[in-house]
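Protein modeling request. Please complete all fields; requests missing the sequence field cannot be processed.
Requester role: graduate student
Desired output: 3D structure, token encoding
Chains: 1
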Amino acid sequence: MLNDTFRGVVAQVHCDAAVPARPFFAALADASMQRAVFVHTQQQFEHAVEHFARPMMALGARLERAEGRMVLASNVWDEHGRGSLSGCHGGTFRELLLRLGCGEGAIPAGAPVRAFNAALMGVCTYEPVPLALATLAIIEHLFVGISGRIGAGVVSMGWLSDDELVHYAVHEALDIAHADALYAPIEAMWQAGHARGDIRVGLKLGAHVFLRLYDDLYADAVRACAP
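Delivered output (227 residues):
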């Protein structure tokens, strides 16, 4: 359980992120998003899904104590379907794309998703460990609500039915556990008075780069799908 002070910091970052007001989520909510635009964003987001475990593994290699490495290793194991290729997150996301009518094979990664992936790898490789952990934790935390919003939007638009929805339905529940597991060592540092500045920056940085990814993917897709 997060202590009141830390919970307040996390809550403020969530509030400042203003997810519902972001163009991508607003267009899903008011049904103004074109299917082609949505699909374009998701074809690009696949590259982020496939990459996300790699910064985690890079950060895990920097941790001296086994308990810290085990937290990240457990999340990485989930990202890889706990040993099942069909259940790995890249696999479930490709299944979602197929159900949305996309053909086999990924399209090349564009600048927004490359920037996001590079930012995460840089943070997890070079930045202070508390900052990197906080960056990953807030992304996992934000993705809980984002998964619910995207899943609800896809179903309400009639693009997929509830029983056809994959990936986002899983993450709406799974990433609660992922975020909580990452928050545990951060909370311990916070309570001990260690690295609070780095933790605050990491939370803000994670929210910034993750939501900026959606902003940029949406803007690129609107341009790409314009008549």
